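Run log, item B.
One chain of 176 residues. Sequence copied directly from the ordering sheet:
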Amino acid sequence: MFKDFFKKKTNVHACDCQKSTTTLNDAPIGSSMRIECIQGEEGVCHRLREMGFCESSVVEKIAQSGSLICRVCDSKVIISRSLAKNIIVNDVCQHKGAMANKILLSQMSAGQKGKIETFLHEGEEVERLQEMGLTPGEDVEIIRYAPLGDPIEIKIRGYLLSLRKQEADLIKVKLL
């Protein structure tokens, strides 16, 4: 029974990507990379996601000395090399094509503009967002991110609105 308890606490997530990838630790300085997956213990994965290192987000490796300095969700974050080994990334340029300019609202950078395309699913959450003016075809601009990446301040229909990252994750946007 003790072994089963221990296994639950050390649940390890492994990457099942088949693409040509590398870890953030091994990525060249100055490169912008798209996060393919986060691997490692469940607690480590959760903490990295809280810091903004989410799948399909773009991360820029700014510097590396004892630790790594990265830009993610329009914030600078310092992480250890051992944590960076858990972040599997792929070069952004490999994602060019028809979908390259369509991303989630939460993945946009401060100052970036887009047009709302669609919502990832339907429900009460989406209805509430539409009632606040977030409807397909509307132009939206990211004004700023809070220091920890949540909430996000946007400009839509001439007014400023703050959204939780989880709400912005529901909105697909075409970049302008």
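Observations after the first pass:
- Confidence is low (pLDDT under 50) at residues 1-18, 94-98.
- The chain has five helices and 14 strands.
Flagged for discussion on Thursday.
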